[in-house]
Amino acid sequence: MFCPKCGYKLSNEALFCEKCGTKLNKNTDREDLNASTIQVHSIRQALKKNIERDQVNALNVTGVYTKFNKIDNYKTCSKVPFYKNINIAMPLLSAVLTAGLTFAYYFHEVSVTKNVEKSRITAENMALQGNISAAYTIIDTSLKLRPNNETLKADKKFLQDGEVVTSHMNVTDNYIKEKNFNEALNELDEAANSISDKAGAFYTMLNKNIENKRIALTVLQIKSEMNNKSSIEDLAELLNKISNYNVKEASETASELRKRISTVAYNTANEYLKKNDFTSALQTINKGITYNPNDKKLINFKQVIISEKNSFEAAEQTRIQNALASAAMEDKNNKTNAVEVTSTSTGINKYGDFVIKGTVKNIATRPISSVQIYYTIYDANNNELSSDSTYVYPNYLAVNGTGEFDNTEYGAAKGHHIKITNITWILPQEDSHENK
């Protein structure tokens, strides 16, 4: 049974509540039985008096002796059997019937009291197992038989609270079917608030049911949300949330979240690896391993990334060294072999002057400017006559750009051909250079 004050679950033999100390009314059923006993006793006493009165009246009215004779001054009579005397037989028969009915009623009341107590215990056990509706029906039926039983009244009050919680739980289930999780959570809050000030085994069971429903609802909500999450961070947030619940459904959902995190980490890291972004790839894999440390696929892929990184860095170092060597060679060429003379021509004009013409090309990898051509003039016998120089125009030559030069040597009528002896140029923002 339950304490009528605090609702604490008690043994049927308890005299005081173990939790709040309230004295228990253990005499309810006994009082029911005593009331029946007193009633039976009263009836028996009344019956006894009636029998005695009827017997006296019967003797006074008709007498046991009904016929008188006066013989020898003595009164004599003939005796009539009492069972033939209706004035005696009827009261006796009535008394017997009344006694039988009284005892039948008494034993019926005893049986009812025992059955009510048995039903009460059954109902309490059913309620603690969560079958509140059936328990309520049993208690309500028992109260119709024993309306003054205080224990039954207390049990009914507890079960009414249970019915309120059950109603909220049913509404919660409807919201869950509609995937209206926020309203479902609000409904569970109302259920919890309705018994927030109650204590005892029954209310502990109700609160446990509410909490289990809240956990199941949270799991369903997370399952629904995780289908729309595609990043490790979002999935990890759901994983951290569901890890607070130690139930089978939560554990299964957490396992599924870890698998999804592993898949996202694996695919994302592959994309980084294609771009040779080894740092991001390793960071992504490490995130996945943090939430799923036993995932062999992620662990093996991490080793692959590290191996690829080392190979790439070694090859990159080689490329850098080659590039440096190439750049050094290129720089050298730019400084020593930037200009290629593509053509030259000489001749005597009508004034007897020696005319020199030619074209050049910028074969450097950078633009050049102020290209100056140095040359020596020879006669037909290859004798050196003089030396001079001239500038190429345009002054600025782009990479692979071409330019021209020409000059007139006055008074050099004997000139026949030239030999270019040197070429100088300027690289932008650097000093002048020359062909070696």
TrEMBL record:
Highest taxon, organism lineage: Bacteria
Per-repeat ranges for TPR: 262-295
TM ranges: 88-107
InterPro entries assigned: FxLYD_dom, TPR-like_helical_dom_sf, TPR_rpt, Zinc_ribbon_dom
One Pfam entry name: Zn_Ribbon_1
Keywords: Membrane, TPR repeat, Transmembrane, Transmembrane helix
Domain Zinc-ribbon: 2-24
Protein name (record): Zinc-ribbon domain-containing protein
Organism of origin: Clostridium luticellarii
High-level lineage: Bacteria, Bacillati, Bacillota, Clostridia, Eubacteriales
